[in-house]
Write a structure and sequence with these properties.
heterotrimer, A alpha/beta, B alpha+beta, C alpha+beta, A: 4-stranded parallel β-sheet, 18 helices, globular, B: alpha+beta, Uridine Diphospho-n-acetylenolpyruvylglucosamine Reductase, domain 2, Alpha-Beta Plaits, 4 domains, 6-stranded antiparallel β-sheet
Amino acid sequence: MALVDYKKDMMRCVRCSTCKFIPISSLLKSWRFAQGCPAIAKHNFHAFSASGKLIMALSLLEGRIGYSPKVIEILYNCTLCGMCDLSCKVGTDQELWEVLHEFRIDAWQKGEKNRLAPHVSIVESIKSYDNVWMQPRRKRTDWAKGLKIKDLNQEKAEVLYFVGCTYSLDPEMRRVAKNTAVLFNKAGVDFGTLGANEKCCASPAFMVGDEELFVKTATENINTFNQLGVKKVVTSCAGCFGLIKSKYPRVGPEMKFEVQHSIEFLNELIKAGKLKPSKEVSMAITYHDPCHLGRMSDTRIPSHGKEYYVLGTMPIKDIPKVMGMNGIYDPPREVLRSIPGLKLLEMERRREYSWCCGSGGGVKSAYPELAMDTVKERLEEARATGAETIVSCCPWCEKNFEDGIRASDSELKVVDAVDLLIQSVE
Amino acid sequence: MNLKQEVGGLIGADRVSDDPEVIAALAGDMSFVPSRSPDLLAKPKGAKDIQGIVAWANQANVPLVPVSSGAPHSRGDTVPSVGGVVVDLSGMNEILRINRKNRVAVIETGVTFSQLIPELKKEGLRLNLPLAPRANKSVLASGLEREPVIIPRHHWDAADPLLCLEVVFGTGEVFQTGEASGPGGLQGQWQIGGAQKFPLGPHQVDYHKLIQGAQGTIGIATWASIKCELYPVIDKLYFLSDTRLERLIEVAYRLIRLDLGDEVFLLNNFTLASLLAPNREGIDKLVRTLPPWILVFTVCGYNRHPEEKVDYQEKDLFEITQKEGLTPGQSLGEVKAEVLLRVIRNASPEPYWKLRYGGENYELFFITTLNRVESFIPALREMAVQENYPASQIGIYIQPVVQGTSCHLGFDFPCPQGDAREKARIRGLIEKASLAFQKQGAFFSRPYGSWAQMVYSQNTEFVNAMKRVKGVFDPKNILNPGKLCF
Amino acid sequence: MALAPHIYKMFANIVGSVNISDDPAILETYTFTWLNEFNNLCAPGKFLPHHPEAVLLPGSTEEVQAIVRACNRYGIKFKALSTGYGSHSLPGQPGVVVLDLRRMDRILEIDEKNKFAVVEPYVTWAQLEAEVIKRGLFTTPVQAGSQASVLANLTSGWGMNTFGNHGGHNGRNALGIEWVLPTGDLLKLGPPGEWFTGDGPGPSLRGVMRGHCGAQGGMGVFTKGAIKLHHWPGPPKLETEPGGMMTAYLLKEIPEFLEIVAPCFDTYEQMIDFFYQVGDAELAYAMMRVGGAEHMFSLMGAISNKEMYEQFYSTGLVQAMAEEMKHPCTVMIFANSRREFEYRKKVMSEIVKETGGKILEVMTEGPMKDIMMKQMPVALFGNCTLFIHHAGGFVISSGYMGTNESVVRHMGIPQEEIKGKWAKSGKILDDGADSTYYNSFENNAYVYMEMEFHYDASNPESVNASRQCLSDERNQRRLEKSGFEPNDIGLTCGDYEKSPQQRIMDMGPHYGNFHLWQERIKRAFDPNDVSDRSWYGAGLLTKDVKIK
């Protein structure tokens, strides 16, 4: 695995600018919300687009430029939200996202991490504490106090509830985990957690390019989950979900469990009649598709440049073409629609072509201005629907929305879908 | 050697004249541009003659004033500003080709409307005509002048129906524009299926657009390809009248938007009467029977199921007129649709319809948009009253152009022949209104006579740029000096 | 050579320090683009040999003017680009500052009644389409894709487009234009403050604005422009849903009076006859011929090459259809009323029959029906460009404007021979297609035809073969042989033998020395030679030519 594997993809870039926008006119609803890529939307120089980064990577491989603070700034001023990849794949087999990611791995391995202090500190936290918040492991169970939850270190259950670092450890976010567990209990789900032994999914390590830590952690987690003998691993965190579902398969060990986001699971419970949302929750809401629950949750197997030709020069990449169409789009909407009184107003950019919240890819910690500009754009789009509340299923999105709302004096509120569901379930 | 001998030596002594009567007839026209005599009339036979004259004029520093239509001229563009040689192209009047398949005619500069219209009809074609043009008006010159044409949906660009040209620039070099550029010449290009239909280029300059509207100051055209349309198999003309313009304009917008109907234009009663009646008395009589405003449109069927085509169009557009509470008819009092249809499908019979009321006529016209037309008309009438000009004698013609993106708004002011006082009054009125309308957003896109000063004084950057163009194509200012901003 | 610090500072003062960069990493991304491998400066590589001096992101006309004036003062060359796409959008010589117009991206006005919109340089076709469709209007999106700049197509590059049969050629759809001349002076075409026309007063300076091929950065910077729009008979929103092979989306509902007819013809003569008849009857909203049957499959962008190969090629479907569909056409009927729709369908069917057209059952039933009616409209209206890059590279040969007969005579016949030879070599895509694209404008008043082929941009052998194929193609068609070439689109791509600019030099004398006329205009409008001339006329080749 190396950046050079993707040299052909770089050379085949045609610099058409499609990666900057929502692809094809028919999907667009307005001039205002046409942008697809947060990085180029903020920084404007072509280098910040996916195409620009492909060109830089090629240039680097050809020795025309070397790593520099500017290269790193450009490379990491990107939420890795994957929109560019979808836009390009509407018409091609090009790998964009994989190149951006491999570029980071290359930079990280070549010592450029020294320019990325905020990222290093998160990675160190994972290494030291198994979580991204530099919190003692024991604190992982604080959210569950008073709840009846199986400890899968001790006993068996059908479902592992993989809580995630933020829902376990962020005092403002713990309610989501708690609400989820309450609902599981109401529905009679046979589930449990790993308690203090839960380890970070390693998403931050993966995103910043620390491949070694990612592989190590992912392998350990897969082995742990397999050993538990659970049928399902359910998580409320879109970041964990996207990574485990979409990226863990590339690590190697067979995954003997199904991965679900809790909103999918809750939707199944509602459909099975095990949860009955009946209390009216009167509210006009809009739903934000988190990247890692949506387009980035489609399982992606990187090609690493492997291909063969047919018809003379038609390259065949022997991997499924993944455009993010199979993300988790309908379950959260179905859950929300099942709640009486909720009025769901859709934003223009939604589902697989949703606008990123701005928090991902290590941007929130290292480039807060990009995170802020990006979330403000999303809040503006939410506001344009007429909704009073923006709903999501991702702690990172929610936290960034909160920050954006505070910074822009917006009257919007942000909640997790589970917060609404629990209000409605008797 | 004198001028006559020099030019005669180039193109033949029988093709030049300095006969005082001939010269006098070229010295002025029916405009406010002051009369000034040329020194010579030259009638070249073709591009080579023209090249010779232009080369000579560059050396001798003699102005050339190209003219292609027959008299009477009315806009001052053919009146010499500083003497020189009038280059009369009316004798170059061969119809070089009519090509039904590609809907195009290639004509020399002197080909007139009365000459071309019947020839096209024989081939099942017609022109997108100006409104009943003068019979002796050059078709090519009309195109060069960007004269508005009456079928808006076939008017894709302001340049239409003029397509490709051969031109002798002021440098004396000959050039073919658009698709006509390149080897082979017309014959060679026709042989391999070419038809000079694509007007742009060659490469990164649209030469035809620089020659158009230039009043002969950039180059002298020798031939051009003209876009033609099919001649209808079934042809119906409808009137839609109202006391106010508002609803008629709404209908016109809809028709153009939906490509319904062929000819679409609006007239006031005076203009309609002028088109139809033979003389002043007839116009006065007829105008009293007509409603103030008339939208004229045609519905045509062609070779494929013409009845059905007409039928669906009629039904669709009647729905539109009904929405506005209006009913189209094929007569308007005593005026029958077929009579007007004949008028608008042909060149004007003599006398030219604009001259029938007074013997002379003066024009005020500009480009605006249909929805702004109404803001000009009351103002003009008010100014006419102030100037003691009878508002009821002002002809008004509203022609949507370039597929309805803008419209030509034209006012005609008939004037008794030879009445200098009335002419002065009209001049005052036109100049006053022009200034006021320019401030109001009217665009004098074809700045004849004193309009040139009026518009160019407001747009110095345009003038600077145009002078650069002039410097390329006519660096010695041989071609029609004193016009536009040159 | 970097900009002197005081010059850099001056530019930074104009645009703001965050909107200028001379960092090598940033500059590097303005040296690489599509077709660079056919630009003789780079070929067969992808990078230009020179960096721009700096990249500036002006945010307004005033800033553009200030930059251009400064360039004149200090003798610095400049080149503006908007969305970019192709070698012509980048500097073609050293010492150039790039003006990336990305920050100028507003739609300034949509005049619904008078059917035009006014846009800044970075408004894309998709953005404009999204807004005008709500108002019952439609655009004329360039085949370069919905992500491409509207204004660039009006002013700077060609003007061909998918809906030209009903909407016209974009070289002819420009109305009022605001233009910073190479001197920095601001020229507004048409009435001051108004956009409804760009012609006059007097001659139309649109004449020196673009011509057939667009100014390609050689005549200053276009900062605002009005485009003529045309009627949209469909609903105010085109609802789509995921699915299908073309763009990954399909129409939820087919608009009421929309039909796509796909007749195919055995001979070019029949096809031409069909185009003429449909043009006369004014039936089509869009009308084109897309390669051979098999070439149509290159529109299948949303599926992978693998799926495409397995579904269409290894099953023999393409080959079978190729036998049946020698000259396949795609015609869109889009009517305003039931009556009009029925009339048009009836006449269309009559013309197909009369001209010997066949509408294959396979196209009207089963999966192809869905493809044609639900997927094709999304591809056409949505105007995705990328599906042409299946092989990782796509190039067009000479492209011609003219009558149906002239372009087919010139291009259609030798096409299969040239393409076939190189396809057999295995170095360009052997899709079995003759790969001609053919599009009608203004009810078939004129047509555009080009040869396309696919190569692998990452493979120098394939690139070189493509360049040789272009040489063959041009030699086959060269003037001395055919005696005539219809209006060429401007030879954007160099071939193995000659650069685009050299070809223009060669052609000029056969075309009234247009290259020298352009040089005169260039010198008149750009006395300090600062607006990068590399893609204007014969580029640098006429720079020192003495002309009277």
